[in-house]
Amino acid sequence: QKEVEQNSGPLSVPEGAIASLNCTYSDRVSQSFFWYRQYSGKSPELIMSIYSNGDKEDGRFTAQLNKASQYVSLLIRDSQPSDSATYLCAVNTGNQFYFGTGTSLTVIP
Amino acid sequence: DTEVTQTPKHLVMGMTNKKSLKCEQHMGHRAMYWYKQKAKKPPELMFVYSYEKLSINESVPSRFSPECPNSSLLNLHLHALQPEDSALYLCASSLTQGHEQYFGPGTRLTVT
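The joint structure predicted for all components is written out below.
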């Protein structure tokens, strides 16, 4: 079983819709959780970090963490074509940092 | 400022060449990382330096040799690479291991 799993997609949503990206992890001692956005040919860009259960909002982005279910998600409200990218979930277990395989998101104008 | 810089942006090298990749940050971060990324794959961790000491080596072939001269700089020395080593090489830094990582723009390496 992989440490971090994501649906690879591709996920397509119309402009203005909510995009929902999901991630599960296997190590219960995981301490911190991150979402990165990566445009084609570019490096990953940190967009959200979350450390405790519940929701964390930053502009159009909301990260949700449920440690009991070992689940973290990212919601993108009012999706824009510029949000089209690969979204990487990352989990830190204290000493190791694991990336999921990424979900490709396309926002259709 | 959350900037990590990497040089060069692009590098083409033959299999007998020796070259180095450089990474620099001035955020006071004490953990620095090298990743390798192939197309349509997630970043693959190679090395971690924590407080200028090698903390993690993910069984990387010896043709890759990391070096951390000081807390702001990280180098990756390359020697006798293979064509399959062609990839995007990413440097990242974080306050300490476990904190969010900030990535540099990467070096696109092509081995001919």
